Amino acid sequence: MTGTRDDETARSVRVPLARSLLVALLLATFGSSGAGFGVMTDCTNTFSCTSTDCSPCAAATSWLTGGWIAQGVLLGAGVVLAVLAARRVRMPVVRRAALVLGPLAAVVFVATTTVATTSF
Fold it and tell me: Is 0.90 topped by the overall pTM?
């Protein structure tokens, strides 16, 4: 039995979308928590202060929070893509967006963590 063209299109969207959602979810949760813990431990140890007590650590906290928010937005976009894929709406567009979502989440994570690390 051969699948229809719609089934093939749906399968071509599911795999990249699932991978991108997984990347965004892991970076929004475990990645952000780990990076935040490491960066803020280094900052507070370097300056012997708390994250809100001195400006270098406050700046790092702001960058890490911004990165976490951006990951949340990307994760939300992934959920919207999943709903569109389930409804089979604009599948080629959903597939292209799904292919971009995971790498974009990684770039945002690296960029905000790097800026946070270099802010102190």
Answer: no
